[in-house]
Structure formats: C-alpha cells, structure tokens
Amino acid sequence: MTSLPYFDADEIRSALPYTTAIAAITAGLRSGVDPECDSPRLFSAAPGGEFLLMPAQGSEFSGVKALTVAPQNPARNLAKIQGVYILYSSDTLAPVAVLEGASLTAIRTPAVTLTAVSHLAAAAPGLTPQAPLVLVYGAGVQAAGHIRAARAVFPAARFAVIGRSPERVTALCAEFPKLDIADYGAMPETAVSAADIILCTTSACAPLFDGSLVRETAIVAAVGTHGRDLREVDDVLVRRSDVVVEGRASAARENGNLATALTEADWAAPTAPRNLRELVSGEVTRRTGRPALYTGVGMSWEDLICAAAVFSAAEQSTRR
C-alpha cells in the first residue's frame, strides 16, 4: 500500500467551512442517504473512558471513525475526544485517506444541527425572524462551533450564552469580539423565554430549563448529550413540540431527551418523530402553537459525508 494522504485539523477546517458541510449534508439526504439504514455506533471500554467506532457505507466512499472519549481529560487541559477517520473506496474497499477525527466531529455536529434548524425554520415561514435571538447553552468546542454554524445560516443573528463556568463563558465570548454575545447566566429564565432559537451543546445529565418557558414559535436543538440516562430538555418540551430526530432507530436506542417521553408504541406509531431525511425533503409540517425540537446523538453517515467532502475537495484541487 502506498502512503495515504492525511488531513490534519487545519486542512479539514479549510476544506469544510460550515456552508460547505451544511450543503453536503443536505445534498446527501436529498440524494438517497437514509438515516434509518445507518450502522449502530460501537462502544467499548477503554482505560479511563471508552472507544467509539462509527462505520458507514456509501456508493462512492465508505468509512469508519475511531475515537476515544476521555471524560477526565478536560480537567487536565486535554481533549475529551480524540481519534481518526479512515475513508475507503466503496468500489475496492481500499483505504484512500485518513482524517483527524476530533476536528471532523467539531464541524459535522454543528453542521447537522443547523441543517435541521434551517429546515425547521423554512417549514414555518415567518415564525423565525431574519435576526433571531440565538441562545447557546454551553461554552466549549461545540458551543463555539454552533455559533459559527448559526452565523453561516442566520448572518444577522444575535447571540446569548449560558454556561456553568464564568471563566469559560468569558473565553467563549472573547472568540467572537464583534458579536457582543450576552452572558445570561444570571437570568436564564428570561433568556429562554425570549430566544427564537435555543442550541443545547452541553454534557448535562438533567434538563437545562423548564420546557414550558420556550416560546411557541421557537426552535430548540438538543445535541450535546449521548445516552438514555443523559438529557438536556424535559418531557414538558418534548410533549408540546413538533419533534425531529436524526434517525428514529438511533434516537430510540440512544437519545435520553426522548427516553421517558416516548414509549416503544410511540416509536412504532405513524405519529413517531420524523427524521432528517424527511425534514430536508419537505415532509415535515409544523403545527400552530407548538415549538419545534430537533435532538440528535451523532450518526455515522454524517461523518462519512463530511469526510468525503474534504477528500473530494482535495482531489479537485489537485486536478487544477
């Protein structure tokens, strides 16, 4: 085997701005990607954390993301998530590239979220203002990524943030000196009641706010937690919202935000939450007087689309 091209974090960020990632995810869903056919994520114990393997297959490329999750690392000023993505030719199953995994994850998660949010806004014309107030829960890597992705979709958006650590909130706001991000840590109920879009990017184990406070016209995206025993929103919000998930099978299996509000019968019913492919295809109708809730846990097809976009951009650049 000849040496494989390796794309580091800087090269991934350069090749995959949020507008490109969102467009690639939207195009993939519209051209036949079915989240219900995605392979389950594979978890295995690792020293002080766990291994996470995420395989996916497509017509041109297939791939697997191999990550480690180390919950104690942030306290040591080390990355919580580390790993690589291996991209393969679907024709020959030969590996064609290796990509740095954490930066790929840091881009694809906000890109998927804003794909959902933008289409939920489009499903109810006039409800989301051109300059929405976007409230971000969290102050880490994903919070910063979601702010950047939201700016790509809603250029005139105003931003507020709520985080557990005042120091991290200050550092997050400093990353965006031109945005004048408001720190609403002292007035969370006021912020929730006023927000047009709420982006939850935390590792919370309990709901972040009272779901009854969310405006009827608002869009909430809860994407920070993974596992049926962890959640960012309460059953009140789930039950009063039009709910969209990445994939029904994955959400029923792993999504704690929905674990107590939806039963097995609910998932099997015709009224079960719609998935991202159905949302992007225009099959979701928002009901009057209900907020919209998108909640995701991360799926393998998303990484494959983004990794293939990075590799294809490099291939096109080489041909020029």
Automatic annotation (TrEMBL):
Any one of the GO CC terms: cytoplasm
Alphabetical list of Gene3D superfamilies matching this protein: NAD(P)-binding Rossmann-like Domain, ornithine cyclodeaminase, domain 1
InterPro entries linked to this entry: NAD(P)-bd_dom_sf, ODC_Mu_crystall, ODC_N
Pfam families per UniProt: OCD_Mu_crystall (PF02423)
Protein name, UniProt field: Ornithine cyclodeaminase
